[in-house]
Amino acid sequence: MLNVPNRRLVLAHFWLAFLAFFLALCLGEWQMYIRSPLSQWIGDPELYYRSVTAHGSAMGYVFPTLVAMGFGYAIVELALKQALIGLRWAWTGYALVVLGTVTAMVPVALGKASVLYTFYPPLIGSVFYYLGVVLVVVGSWVWVALMAINLRAWRRAHPGETVPLAMFANNAGAYLWAWTSVGAAIEILFLILPVAAGFKTTIDAGLARVFFSWTLHAIVYFWLMPAYIAFYTLVPRAIGGRLYSDAMARISFILFLVFSMPIGVHHLFQDPQVGSGVKFLHAVFTGMVSVPTLLTIFTICASVEIAGRLRGGTGKFAWIARLPWKNPLMLALALSFIMLGFGGAGGLINMSYQLDFAIHNTQWITGHFHLIFGGAIVIMYFALAYDLWPHLTGRALDVWPLMRIQLWLWFIGMMVLTLPWHWVGILGMPRRMAYYDYSNPDLAPLSLSVIITFSGGLLLLASGLLFLWILFRGHQGAVQPLPPFRFSAPVQAAARIPAALNGFTLWLALMIGLSVINYGFPIAQLINTPNTAVPAVPIR
Prior knowledge:
This protein is mostly helical. The chain is built from 17 helices and 4 strands. Helix 2 (45-80) packs parallel to helix 4.
């Protein structure tokens, strides 16, 4: 079990993360309801976009950042076997995230910052919204610094030893976030804030979008890191097996670190300010980021097969029946992989310069990122919380039947929600629309899909509520002695991991270098192109 100070720190991060998640979930369901034929139109589209901004900001910035931070602080003690260095700084980072969340959400609630979580210049919201986002990011940077400091202290105390996989992966996620958040930080500090503060009346919207694309896609892999850490370091141990390959796991996290950054312009395929050559380059690198995902699928499936065979399974496929399907982590893994498969297949369409024309800014995009983040990633957030909770509370969390129900509700709800979005996206149904006129004969056939997605949202809402209840019940369970927490052990521990797989110097250099190559030209070109600023549109 974690020591008491660190336990309180991790619990504080997790509880705030999951409460923000549930509130954002409620907002998302309300949005689907008021857009559906089941409800009379509210009459004011600004209320809808106000809700979308709050939903996206909480889900995109606050929720995954707090999960990554809390999980990271737990990993320091559980994997490195040392007390967290910088506990007071960790609480400072947490306070900055809390302060930033409140600072950003108040103007959103007042209708002063309905710019969605992607900011969408030339729309300009309240200066306090952007300052709030900056505070959240700065709070997360405190976490990044502490992860680096704690790893360095461990290395000094254990010269020449292999960094535990969980900490290696955790720091890969921290370094990725530190670098990818720079894009949005530059956009806010140098392009948006001068306008929001009243010092300027124009903004280079094209340049701002390029800087945000620096963050826009790599942030997904920051969201993904805790889920992938759970894949590699929690699931094999939880189901009674072993990790197929420690080295392959490290290569996967390294590839995410290197290839997650120089790909964001594929979100700007329809933007005229970026040339086709740069778009092609980013499309190629976007294809490269599928490699660590495929490597992960292979490694984890092999690890699961090991568990099945250790439990007496034989033959080519009979071992599948011997897996511990009643274990919530086993179920979460299987459901996550199914959603990852569907979402990843959709991502192949998004990354194609030609095919993107067919689905750009349609509900296909909404379905894709909800299936990846809300589906494959969030369900593993649930699983890692279930796995850690007894070690955070010192009490039993022995409600496996309820956990399985909660996970199934989330999976079914997410599939019901997102698959219709993919279909109507192919038909051309636009996203970010506050209202659909179902009396129009061209739109009337789509009304059923909106009702279906609303029904899926109800299942997600029920799953989210059950999840919070299970965690709350975990604080009321019987006190129990716990064995030392352990992460998954590899099948064959290497005598010595190659230095390239035990450090980050080379990979950070590649990450930065590829980012400069892929973004340097379009940014320099836009900065040096005169008369590109347009009048800002303030949100009143």
